[in-house]
Every structure is written in C-alpha cells, then in structure tokens.
Amino acid sequence: MPPDNVLNPVLGIDLGTTFSAIARWTGRGTEIYLNASGHPETQSAVYRDPETGEFLVGRLAYRRGLIDPDCLALGVKRKMDDASQKIKLGEHEFSPIELSSRILDRMNTDVEERFPNGLFEATGSVVTVPYYFKAHQCENTRAAAEMADIQCLGVIQEPIAASLSYAWQMVNDYPDREGEEILVVFDLGGGTFDLTLFKLTQLSDKLIFEVLATGGDDRLGGMDFDECLAGKLLEKSGLSLDDLDSEDEDKARKARKGRQKLIEQAIIAKETLSTSANTYVAVADILPGQHIDVKITRQEFEECIDRYVVEIREILRQLWVMAKLEPKDVDRVILVGGSSRIPCMKDLLCEVIGEEKVYSAGNASQCVAEGAALYAAYLDEPDVFGREIEITTRTCHALGVEVAGGRFAVVIPGNRMAPCESVHLFANPEDNVTSIDFNVYQGSQRMVKDNTMIGTVNVNGLPPRGARELEIKATFKVSDDQKLSVKVEYDGDDGTPIAVQSVFTMQ
Ligand SMILES: Nc1ncnc2c1ncn2[C@@H]1O[C@H](COP(=O)(O)OP(=O)(O)OP(=O)(O)O)[C@@H](O)[C@H]1O
Ligand SMILES: [Mg+2]
C-alpha cells in the first residue's frame, strides 16, 4: 500500500442536493474531512450578501437565508438539468453551474485552509452524480468542478460509489473471500431517490460491479417530505401562507420568510421523528403575530408522505420485473442517504426483502463521498487496491433520434447493459433530400421535446432519390465508459458505402 499522503491526496466529493461531503484516500482507507465548522457534511446552501457581494456556503448561508430568503439558494442540484436557468439571489442572477461551483469551492477551500498556505494540493477529485443524471447533467457537474478549479478525474454515479465503499469494507473484513452477492443500494437523500440492483463479484484480483437494474426519481427526497410536513403543520395550526403568491411585494416577502422559518422547524421535527414517536413544533411569528405550537406524531408524518412511500414501493416492484429477479434473491440492501433513516422506509424494505438483509453503512450520509474517494484513488493509480475494478453499467435512459412530427424513435432502449449496440433503419423522408440532421436524444418520452438532446449528426451529400427510396442505417453503440457513438451509413451515388460517425459523451 502506498504511504499516507496528507498534502496531495485524491478526493471524493458527494455534491448533494441538501448536504455535501468530501473525503480523501489516505493510502489505507478513506477519511471524511470536517468542514470549517467541524461538521462532516456541508449544507448545500449558497447565500449572497446583498451589501458586500460575498458568498457564504453551508450552515451559515442557511441561517442568513432564514432572515433574508431572497438571497439564499437551496437544492441547486435539482436545477442542473438546465444550465441556462437563472437563479435569483437578491438583484443578481446565477446559473446552477455557478452556484454548484461555489459549494464545491467552499468544501475544497475548507480542506486547503487546514494546511499552511499553498502546501495542500489535491492530485485530483471524483465528483458524484445520481444514477439518473443524463449526459448534460453530468457535463454540468464537471463544469461546476472546473469552475471551482477542481481537477476532476471523473464523475461516478452515487449508488456505484456507495457499493464501492461497501465492497471495500467487505474486502477488508473478508480478504480471502471469493464469490457473488446481489446487492440493492437504496439511496434516499435530500433531493433524489436512486434504487440500484447490483451483482458484486469479489475475486482475489478483481471486484466486478454489474448493474442489473435501476430505478428512481430525481424529484423524490427529504426536501419533498419537508414540504409535506410543513403543510401539515400549517393545517394543524389553522394558518396559511397564501401571501406567497401575493402581488404585494411586502406581504409576499414576509410569507417567504415565514415559510423558510417553518421549513427549518419541519426538518428538525422530521429528523426527530425518526427516533421519537412524537415531537413538538413551536415557531414564533411565522407571520407577524401568528405562531405555530403543535404536537406532531410519527404516524401523522408518515401519513403525509404516504404517496411517496407508495411510489417507492412501485419503483421497487418494477426493479424485480426489470432484473427478472425476486426479492428473495437479494443478499444485502445497503441503506444510503439521510432520508433512509425514516423508519417507514426501513420497514418497507424489511417487509419486501427481509429484515436480516437490510444493512446500514457506517454512515448513510458519508459512504457516497468515501466511495468517490476510493474511485479517485483507483483512477489515479490502478494498482492501488491490488485488484482491478470493473464496473458494468446499464443505459439508464433510452437513446434514439427525432423522426417526423417530432417523435422519438428509440434505437437503444433503457436498462440495456453497456457495452451495447443496436441498428435502426431509416429512409429519406422526401424526394431528393441531400442532407439530413440526425438529432440524437436521451429519454423515455414519446416526443423528443420532452427528452434531452445529446447532439446532432449532420449527414450531407446523400444521393438524390425519390422519397423513402434511400436506405439509411444508423448504428448506436454505447461503450462501457458511457460514450455513445452514432454511425450513419448509406450507399453513395455510385453504390459505394459511405459512413458518417460522431461520438458523444454521456457521463
Ligand atoms: N434522522 C433523519 N431522519 C429523517 N431524515 C433525515 C435524517 N437525517 C437526515 N435526514 C434528511 O436527509 C436529507 C439529507 O440526506 P443526504 O445528505 O443523503 O442527501 P443529499 O446527498 O443532499 O441528497 P441527494 O443524494 O438526493 O442529492 C435531508 O433531507 C435531511 O433532512
Ligand atoms: Mg446524496
């Protein structure tokens, strides 16, 4: 094993919707860094001081935002699907990439500042993304890392990072063991829900992670539960925050402030209810002269998030169908993400898969950053673990092209094992067309406008033919490093085969 490298380690960063964490590879294992306030997780909150223009990140940002919510950005990761979006902080607007880079920069700087000036320089970092992130969301995450001057060795999907951290522990506990395990990573965080079914093969010289099936929702997490509970608390107190939509800016501002205060208390209550059967919520002056002072039980909280539990149960059911496996085939369920601590989530897994199989990682909120640090170590030095790491993923979203009427023609369906390849035959749509743009999309909707564009293959110089007389073959190939190559082939005027190829990065 290489010696500990305190000043020039490789890092793993879990850029979370609500909390982020940063870990390093020590040479023997992983270590989570504490931030400047001594916490292992940094709140993914960005506040811009309207007076000085200074940016704050983390708990302090969040606290300032309680007083001045218009200058606070939360849940930026949920906006990474549209980099052109503008997030208003006071009078100024910022892109999701810029604000994410502020979070990454803060975490990195917190680590750098622990060492005398200029001595610390990370060799490189791996940043995590949800499994469900599409190509452009992964690109936007990389761009945020670059903007924060972080040398990004790669991105890794969160469930893969979590299972890597689990596998590392298994290798340490049972170094001589060889065999296969079927794992489910149940990652319920602040913003996203990722469910991943893996086959982990432990060999003396290799660890193989084979993704068998995935499911999830990138709009399902702790933030949604906070909203539900906040609504319940208002209802129980006979209050409303209707002024949020008021035309009167003063009233709307007061309501926004009240809402932020309420959400803060809802989060505390929600987390308390994971260990207590009931709790009290008291918020003074949620609106001037109006207070909340109510008791709330775990049962009431679980009832108000029931529709999410129903959705999670359905995503779980689909997983078995997709993988052609049954819950009894699973050896371990790894709980990841802060919201997996909610008792009814664990109960659901115990009921469906079995209590003895449900495993909580050392710390459900940190194992993703630890797994990312392990992967960073591996990318930096492939011999580091004395074992090769092989990750076989699946295409998460279908891939295809735009056809007549803006419809989406699927070439490679979702949930296919990478590498994979598929061919689709097209014809020239009209008489004498000599050029066609193949717009390539990723998604699961029938119309391309509802999916995400990956790029375009411009095909020029087609031989003029009557409509539908020229056969055009499109071959889509996904490599195991998530690159999509699209080759378009047709016969030229004199019959010679002509091919045009483009390669797109999907991660
Ligand atoms: N004991 C608890 N009970 C219930 N919820 C909790 C508990 N502890 C933390 N949480 C919730 O977990 C969420 C944070 O979890 P985590 O740090 O895993 O999410 P994240 O990484 O920010 O989100 P994502 O992975 O979706 O991007 C917050 O919504 C927080 O309120
Ligand atoms: Mg997370």
What form results from the Cα inertia axes?
Answer: globular
- Number of separate domains: 3
Kindly report the average pLDDT value: 92
Distance between the termini: 30 Å
Q: Hetero groups bound?
A: adenosine-5'-triphosphate, magnesium ion
CATH C-level label of the largest domain: Alpha Beta
Please tell me the CATH architecture of the largest domain by its name. 2-Layer Sandwich
Structure description:
The chain is α+β, with helices and mostly antiparallel strands and 507 residues long. It folds into three domains: 10-219 and 315-392, Nucleotidyltransferase, domain 5 (2-Layer Sandwich); 222-304, Actin, Chain A, domain 4; 398-505, Substrate Binding Domain Of DNAk, Chain A, domain 1, CATH 2.60.34. Helices cover 28% and strands 33% of the residues. The protein has helices at 59-67, 96-112, 135-147, 158-173, 222-237, 249-272, 298-304, 306-323, 343-352, 367-380; strands at 10-14, 19-25, 30-32, 42-43, 46-48, 55-57, 72-73, 87-89, 92-94, 124-129, 152-157, 179-188, 193-203, 206-217, 278-287, 290-297, 332-336, 358-360, 388-392, 398-403, 407-412, 420-427, 436-443, 452-459, 471-478, 483-491, 497-505. Helix 2 (96-112) packs across helix 3 (135-147), helix 4 (158-173) packs across helix 10 (367-380) and helix 5 (222-237) packs across helix 6 (249-272). The longest helix has 24 residues, at 249-272. Bound molecules: adenosine-5'-triphosphate (ATP) and magnesium ion. Magnesium ion binds at residues 14, 16, 158, 189, 337, 368.
